[in-house]
Protein 1
Amino acid sequence: MLAFFRPKGATMSTLVETVNINYEDFSDSFLTCTTCLNRYDPSEHAPKLLPCSHTICHTCLERIAENAASRNPPTFRCPICRNSISIPRGGIAALPPSFLVNQLLDLMASQHREIIPKCSNHSGEELLLCESCDAVFCTRCSLPKQVENKTGEFVCHHEATVVPFSIALKRMSKIMLYKAQQCMQRLEDGEHAIINESSAVDASFTATKAAIDKSFETIYSLVEKHRSHLINSLEALRDQKKGILHDQLEILKSEKRKIEQVCQLDNPSEAAQVHMEMQSIGNKIAGLNTMLSGMGLLCDPRENSYMFFRYGHTNILQELRLCLQGFGEIKHSHTLPSLCRATVSPAIAHLSTDVVVTCYDFNGEPCKTGGDPVVVVINDATGRSIHHTLVDKENGSYEIQFTPPVPGTYMIQVKIFDRHIQGSPFECRASEHINPVSVFHGTDVGLSRPVNIVKAKNGKLYVLDSGNDRIAVISEDFSHKSTIKLPDSERQSVTGMALSPNNTLVCTNWRTREVLEVDLDGRILNRFTSSDFNCPCSIAVSSKGEIFVADSGVGLILVFNAAGKLLRKITGVAGHRLDLLQAISCFENGDSRDIVLADNMIKIYDESGRMRTQMGTRGKDDIYQSMALDSANDLLLASKTEKRRNVIEVWKYSSATLLFVIDSFECKLRRPAGLVLDGEKQLLICDMGVGNNPGAVLKYRYG
């Protein structure tokens, strides 16, 4: 039914056309069997809900089922979606009724009549509804929310949409029915999910019971094996005892035969022979007396029948009971995935990103144990799977780690029991910018032109603060601890510093042209100079204690032993001088020791001074300032000054491949200098600062 309404003089209100679905149309679409076109009713055409969620009347299903009775098992296809349906044991009558259709039938039976609300004071006037102020009014009644226009008629005072109240009621009823249908569908889905989960509980019980039986079969096998061993030992003991007694019986039988032979008498015929026979009998009697005296030991059984099994003489039963109590454990979970939450840390390309999943039970209480079957899938914008690690913290939380390979959007899907947790899948945007984790400017007089930094074995950081002519000692939490004052270090003369294998600090002073070694308390241990020095600006110490001094004045690298004796010189190609000589480092790389030089390229020399390779792009204004090697991860980190920016490059050391750049987007590097590794995938770099920007030490993550 299409309804129009336009009140007279409604100049301030907007009247809309409303569309109302006809009752017959609704009945044909939702309350009629699509197979026989009969309206659903409580008897012959009762609506039946199929497992595929379609509704067919009882009569049609009975007719379809007759043709399916000959099949084994009896099945038929849904007339709408053609899915195969199994006929339950009770026949079609056992199929569940369509609760939603029955509810709609009841609702439509009570509300299908047209209801047009009228004004109580003016029976001929239909009530209107202002959708802006949600007011029901009559155009002839003077109500508080009405105003009088120029023609004297009452209209709504808002610039609003006005519809007949009957249309609004029908519209709200339809919205209510739609929402009710949505709720019913959700409830039915939930019912199916609960039934499926209940079936899964039975299946899990069966599988777990089978696992218990199988595990105890091993114990039974061990027990039976030990029982057989004891019985076999008992049988062997019995056979041994009976063997001894059998041998003793044979001895007794032999002795009996001897006695029988002794007792045999001859028939004497003459007196002399009788006399001799009497003498022989006397001798036999004496022998028998001797045998009789030894019969006691001979006739005493040499073995006894004593055999006894005991098992309570030790703590073996108690120990066995304790072992069985500790054997096996039935793991279970009360985790409700829809209440579980995940916290995603800010994602940055090339750096590890953490996702922490916290589990809750159906009461909303945090779970205390782990072991849930958590399944994680991470994909990039193209759908490609991203490698990740999942760690069960065993306290009800799980830690997921992945490294976005490039900037962009990543989808993180987390399921428990094959059900999404709250908010899954998550959208994670990985930024291209890598900013410092923390910044240290100095807490006493502040850092001024910090040019180098090392980390000693005691965990403290030693910053060569050239603007203040000192070495600032900083703890790992970035609090200033003490100061080392170097001799003859005025006017920023000390520019190079390295940590020796003996955990001492070795520095270069370009003004005094000397090398100075001090301990971590600032005591001078050694100092030397060389006639070859012109402007020793940078220094490195190898694991063997050799000291490499880069001299920008002569364009050479001079190699000394710990006592200051010149060992050799490293020059450029064909003996030419080396340019720039910004920094020098010594790295242990497997069995080799590399000397790495920074200028407008990164140049790598072997221990003898022969250049093996170089990396970087030779830009007109590009200068590498310092390097550090993460040999465990095959990474070389180098600070670089370009024409318009300062960055830290991360290289694959073995292949000389640039992986990514730390741009410090929100905290610009002004003049990067020395850097050092600090813990797992973290680095510290000195920024000398420019103008009003003070010097600082910045910490970054690079993995």
Protein 2
Amino acid sequence: MHSFCRFSGICLFFLCTQMLFAQTSSELLDSLKTELSKASTAKARSLILSELTWYYVPVSQDTAILYGKENIEIAKSLDDPAMLGQAYSDLGYAYMEKGELIEARKNYQEALILRYQTGDSTKIYGTITNLGSVYQRDFQSDSAMANYLKALNFFERSGNDRNADFIRNNIGVIHLEMRNYPKALEILQEVAEYRKAQDDEYNLALTLINIGNIYKNLKEFENAEKTYLDALRIFQEEEDDYNSSTTYNNLATLYNAQGKSELAISIAEKGLLLADKVGADYDYALVESNLAKSYHDLKDYPKSREYYLSAITHFKAQNAENDLASMYLLMSPVYAALGMPDSSAYYTEAYSDLNKKLTEQEIQQLTSDLEARYQSEQKDAAISRQQLELRNKNFQLYGSLVLALVLGVVGYLLYSQQKLKNRQLKQAGKLKVALGQIETQNKLQEQRMLISRDLHDNIGAQLTFIISAIENLKYFDPIKDTLTHRYDSIANFTKQTITELRDTIWAMNSGHITWEQLSARISDYLQRAGISTLGINFEFEVDKSLDPNFHLVSSEGIQIYRIVQEAIQNSLKYAYPSQILVSVSQVDNLLQITIKDDGTGFDESEIKAGNGLYNMRKRAEELGGKLEVLSQAGKGTTVTLLMPKK
């Protein structure tokens, strides 16, 4: 199940000239933009643009990047390596928070070259730390670890305990991601003790979340629960609704893993409220998926389906395709438990298609990353050369180190290619499983075709024979006058049975149908009803704005068709109408189907509901919608079906 870790506690070494006065974010940005409009020198503009880049990152990364690019152009004209290095560092931060890690790495590397020129060791190793964060977010744990250890050595030697603590925390997170839980626990507990001694409650809570994740993965559930609750207490004291929400989700995941579904639900619902309050749509969807898992374990499949469908909607809005694929896979057994095999097959197929797409994208991304990393290694080589020029002019040593670096690059490329090959083999295995699922679905479809053909050829033929035999018996003189009306009744019933059998075969063979096909079926039914019932006017109206090509699962189509049939048959049987109108329209994202007559009407409280009304409401519920019946004695009846348009 999903839980919140997503680099919890990864810290950046922030090097910028921050303006420390008490203003809200909006007031601060407005003030900076006013100062920018009044700035008279290039240096003053560069300093303000640096601040704007920094403070816009949590508000709008795209705006921050625009200011950062403008600052670099101005800083280049100043011939000041320190200011230009700061401009590149600010832009690297904006790109990293936006998730464009290749651009982030390029800008931090440019900043590092300039900071080696200025000789500012604190800023040099701060930038090395930030490069480590970029590598960590790009899942290049080896490169991230190399940068962190280099920076950690400097900050420990210089006595900068706070920055050393941030780096240790990041190293602990790397061990957690690599599932080296004992080592991760050892490092993060040391970090937690330091932060507790410093009264750094907020960062302590972030570290506790990671420690809780370690205990959960080690199945030490009591320790995990205690650690999560300690973190939650701090976030609540800090009035941090966002991290409180994610901590509730971690607790819900923990309780689901222990089979404590009801407790998981009560905790997850609290997280859902907070995620909605702060507008964290992605985390809101994660909590919904946890709730769906809890209700599934409790065998409350309608409720589980409701939360899975909502989570799917939110993941789609966030373009979170990996989470979306997981939801599709988990939805299939829910629909199977609900007795809806067509929907189960639909989500299995949707999972296979999306998983195939993600696999292809991952392979393409790995290929482009490999090329980008090769270019990055070339950039690293340039940085190394500059370091050597500044520290040592011994050309013999310089040549040896360059050769070693080239060999390292070649080795790294070979290693990366092998990793890519291994991942491709793993994805090929997943594809093989997906193809097996598709083959199973194809076999199910073949069986369905065989069943429908058997219904048509055998049972349909037998019913037709019965009709023929009844028609012949009507002319048997000894009893024809006495039993003709009974023969007619049996023949009509058998004809109706054949019609319904054909409708069922049509739905089974279709799999998916368009609204246009369903509309034609309803229209044909109304025409037949008009022919067989003289004196009643039947009308069928469809809103022109409704897309005729949108698809329905065949089982949904036959359910709608049966509701329309049942409503019309009830009207003909009990209401004695002169006009029946069937209309279809779209209201927001709902499909509305109305069957209205001008018959005698009835008071629902004064009648005993029969199977017809019960069946219509049951069908509406299975469609995920609802059925409304409005009637008044002497003024007709209106039956309205409302269902979500998927």
Protein 3
Amino acid sequence: MKMFSVAHKTVFVVDHCPYMAESSRQQVECDVLTKSRAQGVIPLAPVSKSLWTCAVECSMEYCRILYDVYPKDKLINYIVSDSEFHILNSWRREDQTTHELMATLAAVGPPNPREDPECCSILHGLVAAVESLCKITELQREKRTALMDTAERVANRGRIICLTNAKSDTHVRMLEDCIQETILEQNKLAAGSDRLMAVQQCDLVLVHIYPQGEDTLVSDRPKKEISPLLTSEVHSVRAGRHLASKLNILVQQHFDLASTTITNIPMKEEQHANTSANYDVELLHHRDAHLEFFKSGDLHMAGTSTRENGLKETITLKWCTPRTNSIELHYCTGAYRISPTDVNSRPSSCLTNFLLNGRSVLLEQPRKSGSKVISHMLSSHGGEIFLHVLNSNRSTLEDPPSISEGCGGRVTDYRITDFGEFMRENRLTPVSEASHNPSGKLPIERAKAQLERHTRYWPMIISQTTIFNMQAVVPLANLIVKETLTEEDVLTCQKTIYNLVDMERKNDPLPISTVGSRGKGPKRDEQYRIMWNELETLVKTHAAATDRHQRVLDCIIACRSKPPEEEERKKRGRKREDREDRMEKNGSKETEDKSWQESEKSVRLKGLLEKDNPETEVIKDSPDSPEPLNKKPRLITEEAPPPERAKGPVTLLSMWTSRITAANSRKHQEFFGRASSVNSKFELYQHLKDESGMDIHENGKTSR
């Protein structure tokens, strides 16, 4: 049903009633030679066109632009309505010319202002327009013949453009109701006919024309859906140049056209042949000629400007000096027919004649700074002028660009092989309608869903992934993207996860990229942490699909949560790796320092053990050794008894404490009370009994 769009058929209905003979009140000067006119000659009075003349001229410009850009597949049917309708041409291709339309319009003539207005109505032409839309064009007949049994799939859509002078908004609604009823009646007739087609969609564009200086009686209205078969929009426009601008905008909207203005065109002056001036020419063409600007967002760099109506934009391109070699081949990415906006102006006529003589003109983007960028070229082929789009980045005739020169910079480690496999797995193939299940999804929808699943997580660069560089993860990566999993698939995924756990237990190396990092890269446990995080990210993107997908994710989470003894083992492994890295970093120097420290430590420990043993202890601080200047003289006393040896294993702390205690006891005279104490109690007044003959006991009691 999308084979033919609304733009395939366009019916112009122009009002030919007496009120269209009214003046548009836009003055046109006929005597422009005011300076060279002789004295005494009366200047010509200005004239004004009628509403009918304005409507015909503007509609002819609409047709001219359409025939220039689309000479074959866009058709126009022209109808004039007064007391009856007059069809000026048919849908046949040989009738689709402005010469044919102008000849028939000349035969129709201007409206008769003395004709009875009650007998004239625009409704005659609107009814005929709906009937004309139901007629089959040559292109539609060819498609229906090619499809044979499925001819009903050929759509029939069209547009009606009505130029009239409506009375009020109520009058407009009455016209819309009339068209709606006519469409329903004609669809009933077309249902049983092979020469007619039912109308699936009709767009009504009603243009209300009124003279300048008067107030409009009809208000503008954007596109509105009247019914599933009919949409309507209303434009209230003053006659004259305003009507010409409106139809120029409508033809761009209806046929997806764009505007380009060629600036700085050098032309010699007619009156002064030795001088030249720069002119501008506006061209209309298909919108795809500016597709690169729209994609890159460089419209501001291409000189986008808004015209006075404010509704359409034009892109400005600068004239370049034309090439003298006409046979030079330029690498183009597209060629589109053009149509001058003001075809009768002198600059447009000079430009078209220049191009039709076999010359080519290069067009560049106007830039304030930087190098010149030539983006388009004007050239003629077979008597028709085309706007060529040049590839300003790289020629399609050259060797294909290196993948390292892509948008991501000089990246050289793209997953090219994996991407080729990805394309093979997601290629589209034709499918017959007989093999399609009507109750299920369409094949194209299934293909889109599969492509979406496969691209949820797909790193493009080798250095940005770990799991896709591991052969051990391939079974899980191929199965997890499936729409549904079987029990066997779940077991395969779990087996893959257990293999990864075993690899981590054995401390096997992983293919971790060291690009952009110093040294050997991350530690082994950090490598596995990165691997597990990426694997969990991959499975999480598909976990919500089914319960079996969730079971795979649960298995990964369960395997990542390790017992405490496993964490302690990995901590010891990290310390060992740190020592190895330091040894490799410092080399033999650190090895020598480490051996010296070990030997020094053993000597010290041996000395402590010897000092703790009184039989083998050698006192360094003997009385014969000289005393330091800042040290008090040591008092010579009796040697304290050695401390009691602890039974069982002796710790390094106890040995150190014993040594300090023994050393301190030799450096000062022991307190008399501590040495003479009995059961940790010292007896006071020991010589009192000898002097007085009294025996003093505790609590102050005496005895003889």
Protein 4
Amino acid sequence: MNEPAPRLLTDLAQSERFELLIGAVKDYAIYLLDADGNVATWNTGAQRFKGYSADEIIGQHFSRFYTEEDRARGKPAEALRTAREQGRFEAEGWRVRKDGTRFWTHVVIDPVVENGAIIGFAKITRDISEKKAIDDALRESERRFRLLVQGVRDYAIYMLDSEGNVSNWNAGAEAIKRYTAEEIVGRHFSIFYTPEDQAAGAPARALATALREGKFEGEAQRVRKGGERFWAHVLIDPIRDDAGELIGFAKITRDITERRLAQEAIDRSREALIQAQKMEAIGRLTGGVAHDFNNLLTVIRASADYLRRPGLSEEKRARYVEAIAETAGRATVLTSQLLAFARRQPLQPEVFDVGVRLRSLQEMISTTIGSTVSVEVEVRDAAQLVLADPSQFETAVLNMIINARDAMPRGGQIRITAGATDGVPAVRGHAAASGDFVAIEIVDNGSGIEPDTLARIFEPFFTTKAVDKGTGLGLSQVYGFAKQSRGEVAVNSTPGVGTTFTLYLPRATGKAVPTPAPATVDLAVVPNRSILLVEDNQGVGGFAAGLLRELGQTVTWVGDAQAALDILRARQKDFDLVFTDVVMPGMSGIELGKEIRRSWPRLEVILTSGYSHVLAEEGAHGFQLLSKPYSLNGLLSALGRETALA
């Protein structure tokens, strides 16, 4: 037997469709009350979360859903009265299920009107217990956070509106800045800035930085109520709503005055310690210089006094003249080593092959260190070009080798190697550096260096040798040469095993410059020329003028660069050469040379100096440099070179 086909919704009357709709809703209790508040209808949603079936609840008064305390307060009657008088009742509150459990609801009651009279009420209830739990937890969290913020006394924690006006204030802000909330809320936060910071626009920059970078952080002085200044650490973060719109700023300030004062005291103590260490180092340096120079001056002065005695034989005269010359040479080396350590030595860099230089030094090294020590030289790659002062390089290598020899009084072995490397390791607290370098290693199997000594070996005049057995300047020259050449020197040592010195020099490109052979200049190749001598020191100027005249030169001597320019402007054609000191009051010799180069480009210039920081840092700017103290042969070589260039 065929069952009848189900009806379509369109076949139902409107009232039937509405009843089906209400009955199908499960998330809302939707039902009718009569005029007295008795339940007249009941849907699936009402049964689901209130627990009553329709048979159990229809005809019962809706007040049974209320808690006992709400019934005692007359809440059900008040709800119907509000709906009747105001046309609607809406509220949230606790309700009770059939099993006695409570749940939080959102309730709407609307009067049902027919022919102008209220015949009942439509009631919609939703279980929002879960939402209430979340809201309660959020409110509790916010309450605890407010208590936390308000309870913090070491930090000023408060908010600004988008214009920078204070919108709330915690106990820490009051304790640190001394304003009560009533005094400060609504005022612009720039009131906490010093007058000079306000004038410089610091408050606006702080907010702009917070907006641009997401945070502003800094330390500066701020002002309490009453004008007292204090040091503050400040954080400012922008606050935005869900749409990304700026609604204000969160601001945290901490009083760090005590910390700053303590740090300043530490800094003062550190500066005092550094100053004491500087004075100690200066004293040690001065004492070392005085000791060594007094030794040299003893030889020079005694020799000069002896030469004044009448009736000296030529043999004795020659011996004491040679002693003066030799001692002057040792004094030159001493000042050169001092300047090298201080990185103030005027270097004359050129491209050379490290391997070629080391092999040319090998015979000299063997002679210097004696027969009990063997030397092995190994160059790992074909060409190891560097740009450095070759003379200073050879001196540095010899100084390291002599140090190795002295660590092996009973003999041993020194191995010298050179090869390319792609960086410099971390040395003496400095970070490692990458780049193309040539590493020259000098390894010995001597006594090694104790850790305490190792930390001081590059200090000038520091030595573990007996008195008069060493100046303590050899390794300081190595250090200064390496640093001034944009390189480094490292040392590793194990007591009883040996020591390795590694000199790092930047690699160079191009061709090596051939090493010129030393030669004595013949007076005959230096023709008579007219020289403008510029020297501010009377003793040196008088001596140099006399020496040049003895060499057959025509000399005009002036004491400063301005006087030299005045003479040149008047009679430049009378001069072939300007021979000028570098360090002079007013215009320096380098500045004079540049002016001559601009105004009279064909006029030759020779610079001379015992020391100049400009020369050490920038070089001779293309001019020939004759270092003081210069020898007769050095002076002749300079004059001869200018003749060849002319």
